[in-house]
Design goal:
The chain is mainly β and about 290 residues long. The chain has 2 domains: about 160 residues, Immunoglobulin-like; about 110 residues, no CATH class. The strands form 5 sheets. Strands 1, 2, 13, 15, 17, 20, 22 and 23 form an 8-stranded mixed beta sheet that branches. It is elongated, with a radius of gyration of 22 Å.
Length: about 290
C-alpha cells in the first residue's frame, strides 16, 4: 500500500484574534460559563460591536473576503458568514442546554446538516477564543493536539476474478487542536473504470464521470479537487465540533466488471471553519489486478 506522507499547509498568516487591539473592557452578562457568570471582555477596536442582545465580530482577510460572526448573548445561537471570492456560505449553530451537556444543531444556508451532543457549549467556546484568545474558563477542552488526518484503503486480495464482489475498507481519522472548535472534514474515494460501486458506506454524494467529464470537488473554503473522468467518486463531508475528532471505518461493496490493473485512490482534508489558509490533507492509493 502506498500511503502518501501527511501534508499540511500551516497558517501563512495568523488569524487576528479579537482582543489583539484592546480598548475599554466590556462586561457581558450571560449563562454560567465554566465557573463564571459574567465575562469581562476586552473590546477590540473597530471589528467588535457589543449590542444589547448580540455580539458582532468582523474579520477581513486580504484577497480572501471577510468572515462575520453574530453571537447571541445567551450563547444559544451563532451565525458564521463566510463571504469570499469562492462564494458565500452562512452557517448557523443552535444550542439547547441538556442535563449533562448541550444539543447542537448546525445549518448550512438554512438546511440542517449536523446534530451532536457536546459536553460544552461550542458557541461559548468560540466566543472565548475570539474575544479572550484562550480557553482558560472552559473545562474539559483538549489542548496540545497536533492537527492531523489520515485515510487508509484496504482490499482482501491483490488479485481477483472478473465478476467478483469485494469489500473495500476505508479507514479515516482526524484530530485537531482545541483552538479550532469547528472543523470541516471531507474525504473521497475514486474508483477507476471497470470497478463498480454497489452499496454501503453511506456517502454524502456519488459522482459518475464519463470520459471527458470533470468536477471540482469541494474540500474546504477555497479548496477544490479537480477530478477527471472516467471514474466513480464516493464523497463524504462532515463537521466536527470541539475537538472530538473523527474515527470511522466503512466497508464498501464493489464489483469488478473488466480485467486489468486497477488503481483506487482516496484523499481526506481537514480545515477549520473560517480559516481558509489552514488546510491539511492526506491520501492513499492501492492497486488490484483483475483476471478472467
Amino acid at each position: 500500500m502506498n500511503l502518501n506522507i501527511f501534508k499540511g499547509f500551516a497558517a501563512v498568516a495568523m488569524l487576528c484574534l479579537i482582543g489583539s487591539v484592546l480598548a475599554t473592557p466590556v462586561t457581558i452578562s450571560g449563562d454560567n460559563i465554566g465557573s463564571h457568570k459574567d465575562i469581562s471582555v476586552q473590546k477590540a477596536a473597530n471589528n467588535v460591536k457589543i449590542l444589547d442582545n448580540k455580539i458582532e465580530i468582523i474579520n477581513n482577510f486580504e484577497n480572501n473576503g471577510k468572515i462575520e460572526y453574530i453571537i447571541s448573548k445567551d450563547y444559544s445561537t451563532m451565525t458564521i458568514k463566510e463571504l469570499n471570492v469562492n462564494g458565500n456560505n452562512i452557517y448557523t449553530l443552535k444550542t439547547v442546554k441538556l442535563k449533562d451537556g448541550y444539543h447542537v444543531s448546525i445549518y448550512k444556508n438554512g438546511v440542517l446538516i449536523h446534530t451532536k451532543i457536546t459536553k460544552n457549549n461550542p458557541i461559548e467556546y468560540i466566543t472565548y477564543q475570539k474575544l479572550l484568545g484562550g480557553n482558560k474558563y472552559m473545562p474539559n477542552i483538549r489542548t496540545g493536539i497536533t492537527p492531523r488526518c489520515n485515510i487508509i484503503l484496504e482490499l482482501p486480495e491483490p488479485v481477483v476474478n472478473i465478476g467478483a464482489e469485494d469489500y473495500l475498507k476505508v479507514d479515516t481519522n482526524a484530530r485537531y487542536n482545541s483552538n479550532d472548535p469547528l472543523v470541516f472534514i471531507k474525504y473521497y474515494v475514486i474508483l477507476p473504470p471497470g470497478v463498480k460501486y454497489i452499496e454501503d458506506g453511506n456517502p454524502t454524494a456519488v459522482y459518475k464521470l464519463s470520459s471527458g467529464q470533470s468536477i471540482n470537488l469541494p474540500m474546504g473554503t477555497g479548496v477544490h479537487e479537480h477530478i477527471l473522468g472516467p471514474c466513480t467518486i464516493l464523497y463524504w463531508s462532515d463537521l466536527d465540533i470541539l475537538g472530538d475528532g473523527l474515527s470511522d471505518t466503512k466497508h464498501l461493496i464493489i464489483k469488478y466488471i473488466s480485467t486489468g490493473n486497477k488503481e483506487i485512490k482516496g484523499k481526506i482534508g481537514l480545515q477549520p471553519v473560517g480559516i481558509p489558509w489552514n488546510y491539511m490533507w492526506n491520501s492513499d492509493v492501492i492497486h488490484v489486478k483483475v483476471i478472467n
